[in-house]
Design brief:
single chain, about 375 residues, alpha+beta, FAD/NAD(P)-binding domain, D-Amino Acid Oxidase, Chain A, domain 2, 2 domains, six-stranded mixed β-sheet, four-stranded mixed β-sheet, 10 helices, about 25% strand, oxidoreductase activity, FAD-dep_OxRdtase, FAD/NAD-bd_sf
């Protein structure tokens, strides 16, 4: 069995891989050009959801959700997980038709976690919601957690299991060495029998060096947080036809996000907000919760996310090298899947068939020529 592993990227998925590989006795080094959770993993909206998943992701999301129920036993911290439920709100009859079809699709796949609710039930669950909304799609048990707290807990547990984290080192070269790899960053070199690519928005560069380029785009989902308000919202709210993730924390502040994009400077490794995009998100909120017009925004920010062309991640073995595993490109909805990613990576490293279906996430899907 290969013993030395280098994981590139110390986000949630990299920390998850490090923990599970360390559990299996591997000597794990995690390298990050900044620090753990600097980009997507530590600054996202913290959604823990099965609701609205791509069909291929549903088995992974359900398995990950089960891990979220037992987070304290895994890493010694509940990571701020609150299973308050999530509701995707319909703003009109066309939205209701979309949600009805979604419920039917999920049930035909054999799942029953998403339930259509009517106007009365919606009003009962969301009494502050505008009256024009005819219903929604609910997923009880979904919720939210604290992103940076989560990454920190998984990193610390990985370190307790023996993983070594090296931060502030940007990998600039990868070359074969014997039966493994030599990674270089600055004046430092790292030798590995197995390479795990969890580099997020920068994973595409590693793929190019490895001879298997992918259609990855770096994007910048934006978020806002308000002043403290009196409690009015107990669940996480999304919209059907507009980007929105809307939740109130225990301290009264309200987080507004959902995917409206800012601007990425991939060279400088930063993301910047756009006022017009923030205004678009705010307009969505006010149309659903009119009283929010008076709420003051206290802070805005954006993270850097890796978005794939088909909006589902790459998880699996390299198509070119039998000692490379990929786990990246979660396309702005990978946070909830973090607990299960490491288990899949560990199975692949040990040459075991993963317990969950990962064929749809193979990097080989991008290597089949599209028909004319």
């Amino acid at each position: 069995m290969s013993r030395r592993v280098v994981v590139v990227g110390a986000g949630f998925h990299g920390c998850s891989a490090a923990l599970r590989l360390s559990n299996q006795g591997y000597e794990v080094t995690v390298i990050d050009k900044a620090y753990a959770g600097r980009h997507a993993s530590g600054v996202n909206a913290g959604g823990v959801r099965r609701l609205g998943r791509h069909p291929a992701e549903i088995p992974l999301a359900i398995a990950a959700w089960e891990r979220w129920q037992n987070m304290t036993s895994i890493v010694g911290d509940d990571c701020g997980f609150r299973p308050v439920g999530q509701i995707k709100v319909a703003e009109n009859n066309n939205d209701m038709a979309i949600l009805n079809e979604r419920e039917r699709q999920v049930q035909n796949l054999g799942y029953h976690h998403e339930k259509l609710i009517n106007r009365d039930e919606l009003r009962k669950r969301l009494p502050a919601l505008a009256g024009h909304c005819p219903g929604g799609l609910a997923c009880d048990g979904d919720g939210f957690a604290n992103p940076y707290r989560t990454v920190t807990a998984w990193r610390r547990e990985a370190e307790r299991q023996g993983a070594c984290f090296r931060e502030g080192i940007e990998i600039t070269d990868i070359e074969p060495k014997g039966n493994g790899w030599r990674l270089s960053g600055g004046e430092e070199h790292f030798d590995a029998d197995l390479l795990v690519n969890c580099a997020g928005a920068w994973a595409g560069e590693l793929c190019k060096w490895l001879g298997e380029p992918v259609p990855l785009t770096a994007e910048a989902p934006m978020l806002m947080i308000t002043e403290r308000l009196s409690p009015f919202l107990g669940t996480v709210v999304g919209a059907t036809s507009r980007p929105l993730s809307f939740k109130q924390f225990e301290n009264g502040t309200v987080l507004i996000g959902g995917g409206v994009r800012g601007v990425v400077d991939i060279v400088r490794h930063v993301a910047e907000t756009r006022l017009d995009g923030l205004a678009e998100n705010a307009d969505t909120v006010v149309s659903l919760f009119p009283f929010m017009k008076e709420a003051r925004i206290m802070r805005t920010w954006a993270g850097v996310e890796a978005v794939m062309r088909d909006h589902i991640p790459v998880i699996g073995l390299s198509s070119q090298h039998d000692n490379v595993i990929h786990a990246f490109g979660f396309s702005a909805h990978g946070y909830q899947l973090g607990p299960i990613t490491g288990e899949i990576v560990a199975d692949l490293a040990m040459e075991r068939e993963p317990k969950l279906p990962i064929t749809p996430f193979s990097i080989q899907r991008f290597q089949t020529p599209c028909p004319e």
